[in-house]
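Quick entry, no commentary yet.
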Amino acid sequence: MSHAAREKAEAGILGEVLDIERQEAALVWQAQEAGLPIEHRADCSPLAVLGIRLVTVPARASRTSAGHAYDIR
């Protein structure tokens, strides 16, 4: 398996794991609302527990040099 194919397969598997953790976290939240004594697993993804998605967007072109967080004018 090539390096690129391995990275693609790994990303797919990690995405599936995150989806399952999201389902698990939703069930834990429901159980807590019902008053059951249950906690999220310590190794559960924070993204799953908080119900958020990481969205990356292309960076806009900047006129600054690397290492600066803002445009220097």
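second:
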Amino acid sequence: MPRPRSSEFVSVINAIESTKGAFAGRVFTLDDLRSSLNGKVSTFGAGDNFLRRAVQECMMRGEVRQSAPGTYRFVGSVEESPIETPASEVEDFDAMYTPEIDPSFIMPSVLEEYLPAIQKRLEKGIDQKFRVVGPAGCGKTEGGVQVAARLGLDVLTVDCSIIREPRDFFGSRTVRDGRVVWVDSQFSKAIAKGNCMIILDEVNRCSELVGNALLPLLDSRRATLIEERGSMLRCGPGIVWWATANEGAEFTGTSAMDRAVRDRFQRTVEFTYLHPTMEINLLMERAGITKEIASNLVEVANRTRKESSGISGISQAISTRQLIAAAEDIVDVGVHSLQYTITNTYSPCGGADSERNTVANLLVGRFTAGS
């Protein structure tokens, strides 16, 4: 099932559909269009993002053409020039969606400070690139989603761990009507559209060869030649690139980020686990557990985080993602579910001295069947 767009963006699309007949054949600017829609929609998005994206969507469908920089023209009204988008093409773009703001997500202060600057640069069509690091399960990917939600941007998340060769980023060959044709990937469509957030999730799980395919897109060229496509793929205006990475020897299957790729991400944002009070409130809000249970969960998690940093033999910390799952299962299943969400994630090797037994002992006395 495709993920839904925000209701605000849909209202802008619908408003344009109902009024574009009045603009048929006329040259107009975004200001002209906004003026005609005033009173019909509640918001045009931060910096008119919803409005700009709606016009871009009309351009992709062939309903609008750009006459000159900053001016556009509708090809004609729906009645005069009916244009249909094949269902297959719509399905191909299902992975891009407009996220909703999650009020329970705690935005790092550095990102809160950056939002106005990101918005200002987006309005000028300037790309921005962030390398995002931190422990597993602390909100790196969701952070990108929530930045996009606050800016009214569409999001495409690319799971870099499944990209095996450079071509996988851009598309593939297929047979249609007896002919071999090239089909653009959702990634290619998204960057050509522009004005969106591209999340390169676990970017350091790509091989260097695969990562190198991104280099010309990430520098001033903003384009790359796809030989099988027979043309250049060019970036649309104002892309926010968000590259997450779990770094360290404990993350098998990763590699050091190629220096040339890393240099193109001029800003590095470090995520970490929340302050205990914030994490307790998050668990209470997300799962509906009591403050006492939330406090006990966070206390156990922070012990593992401290001890996994080298003070003792515990090899991994309990992440915020694990805590949320544990809290939800306590509500739905009971405290005995901690065996599956917490203790069983650790090795039983070593018997009484095993990591599993050590963590189980941290839970003893903090949780009872009636809690």
